[in-house]
Specification:
Helices cover about 25% and strands about 20% of the residues. By secondary structure, it is of the alpha/beta class.
């Protein structure tokens, strides 16, 4: 189901998005960012669900019914979770899967394949000397 808005805000773990927008926007969150972000419309989570406490799983299950939970593959612990459309997104960019190294990259590519015209990144960064930064830098 494609995004109905023309603007999306991709929210990372560092800070919530709190701008007043007089328009139709979607707010997509990475991992636990949904727990402090009002108005979330999607949650993207690609890590192993068993790395997280029960409060995370409960939080996902307590989200309003219209909030989509998008993962690498559906989780039985989160009945409404859905698989990320990996083949569709990768083929849209004529690249291989190895290029996508972090959830933010998958989210951005997904927004572009859905034809969004305005994409805002909020609260996303990697420490410049972290292993994660070097693994994700290229994408």
């Amino acid at each position: 189901m494609p995004c109905k808005s023309k603007k999306v805000v991709l929210v990372g773990m560092i800070e919530a998005y709190n701008e007043d927008d007089a328009g139709d926007i979607e707010i997509w969150c990475i991992n636990r960012a949904f727990m402090r972000q009002p108005g979330v419309t999607r949650v993207y989570f690609f890590d192993n669900i068993h790395q997280f406490e029960q409060d995370f799983i409960d939080g996902l299950n307590d989200l309003p019914e219209d909030v989509r939970v998008i993962c690498r593959e559906p989780w039985p612990e989160v009945p409404r979770s859905e698989a990320f459309p990996l083949n569709e997104v990768v083929s849209a960019f004529n690249t291989n899967i190895q290029y996508f190294q972090c959830t933010g990259a998958y989210m951005l590519a997904h927004a572009l394949t859905e034809g969004l015209e305005h994409i805002v990144l909020c609260g996303m960064y990697h420490l410049h000397d972290s292993i994660e930064y070097f693994q994700h830098k290229a994408c």
